[in-house]
Design brief:
51% of the residues lie in helices and 0% in strands. By secondary structure, it is mostly helical. It has one domain: Orthogonal Bundle (434 Repressor (Amino-terminal Domain)), CATH 1.10.260. It is globular, with a radius of gyration of 12 Å. 13% of the residues are buried.
Length: 79
């Protein structure tokens, strides 16, 4: 299975469903708003550490964020 582009639509939908601004999510991730905006539109691929922070922040799984599953409920976490 090959993924050329990480799905960016899910991170945008999760943000807008919660009425959050790009600036708010960018602050949580420790990136500039412009950088986060580029993640959302697919210009930049988000690194694994950002992906993990997003999964924790949105209480979902990395698999859901990248489109491997449609189940948004996260797995049991060790921490």
């Amino acid at each position: 299975m090959k993924y050329d582009i990480l799905p960016f639509e899910r991170i945008r939908n999760m943000r807008t469903d919660r009425d959050l601004t790009q600036k708010t999510v960018a602050q949580v991730l420790g990136v500039k708003q412009n950088t986060y905006s580029q993640y959302e539109i697919g210009v930049l691929r988000y690194p694994i550490d950002v992906l993990i922070k997003l999964a924790i922040f949105y209480d979902t799984s990395v698999d859901y964020l990248i489109g491997i599953t449609d189940e948004s409920k996260p797995y049991t976490r060790r921490r």
